[in-house]
Records
---
Amino acid sequence: MLALSLALAGTALAETDRVTPVQEDYARNCQGCHRADGMGAFGSVPRLRGFVGLFTQLPEGRDYLIRVPGVVWAMLDDERLTRLMNWLLATYSPEELAPDFRPYSVDEIRRARKRPLADVQQVRARLIVELQRRGLVPPGEDGLVSARRAE
Ligand code: HEC
């Protein structure tokens, strides 16, 4: 029994070693809704995978991403949140990023957090329409209809 617990403790340790702190920040603060694979939840939580980067194609979209409640109110300081947002985009949606995308700066994140969006739903809907109009998102797609369906 002791040998088994020691072996298990060893595994846990090895796993913690492999997880970098930024992934841990995602796991603790975002994954409950957006899921580990970034596929969200059908109709309620948008998928990040293969989608979230699209917003950076619009100036207002870049701003939108860092003013949604889940980001603004994250229990992380500005430095860690900046690192998390840049990691999230590079990990889940590198293909969709604007060609001239510049990573977020700590200052940009700090300022955005002072201006949380009051009308998230409306701003998001408007941005989706604009992405569709530009042919970047197919008609009917909004990142919610293509999120994970309950099994
Ligand atoms: C309680 C569930 C929940 C948690 C926790 C959460 N989010 Fe979200 N997130 C949402 C929902 C729902 C939206 C859609 C906009 C809205 O209604 O807020 C969203 C939108 C977003 C968006 C904009 C993309 C889009 O398609 O609208 C980003 C970026 C984002 N979240 C990142 C994060 C990050 C980073 C964290 C962790 C620090 C996080 N979220 C935690 C539910 C959540």
---
Amino acid sequence: MQTRIGRHGRPVFMKPVNKPKRKNPMETEKNTNQPFDLHLHSNCSDGSDTPAEVVRTVAARGVSMLALTDHDNIDGVTEAMSEADKIGVRLLPAIEMDAEWPHELHILGLDIDINDKKLTDALETALKRRSLRNQVITEQLLEAGYDIRPFLGGETGVVTRLNLAMALVKGGFATDTRDAFIRFLRKGCPGYYNAGRFAPEDVIKLIRGAGGVPVWAHPLNGHPDPHKLAPLLAEMGLMGLEGFHPSLSEGDSQVLTSIARQLNLIVTCGSDYHGANRKDVFPGQTWRDTPVLGECRAYFEARPKRKIR
Ligand SMILES: [Zn+2]
Ligand SMILES: [Zn+2]
């Protein structure tokens, strides 16, 4: 593989040209590595599309296996599942949960039993913490002279910090959501409040208890050293790394894949699609026809399909 140095001083990996493709002896007649996307949000959290719309949009892009991973809730799974069954694509019931240690980190719970009592109880606790946090942030911003209350309230599901950022933009206080996070919502700013989160080992235990596969989402966001954290999370029972995500360069994905190989973890791909709320992202965009993602697809395909009661 050739490399050159890109605009930001990072190596850019280029595919070799005009090289005949060598047949992989392990390749079977049926190539199971077709596009999939295991990180998608609906309006049950901070996406803009209904769960059924997410499934239709994803399927229209040729993605045949997907996971709806709304933040701290599974409200959209039943609707998504019935749409997926209608269209004929495989849906993994899933979730994205917040954890804290030593910084905020997100863990996807893929292919979970959405009726697991311990999980649903924990989600109620998380929802209460979130509502308290949103209320305190709104009050703190008001005290600092930024009234976002008129620009909130249209949300149909769990209100996340992205929703608060969008309210700051609508109110004319921030130029875009990135600006809102940097100037208002991050630690040390008037719109920061932490109502507490689960420890990662608790989240991992909850997901595994619900029969699911815990995967560290977008591992480099706020965590520059996955070499240190991934082994600790793997000790706790983590089963995968999201090695392909819009926030990761090709080089990052290679590093994460090699960490996953050492720790015997699955590597997943996800777009973190939020519909119109993140316009530069589209479903399936992080899928690659690479062996590591072929293994991931085969792993999930081999699991019995969950029935939603
Ligand atoms: Zn996340
Ligand atoms: Zn996400």
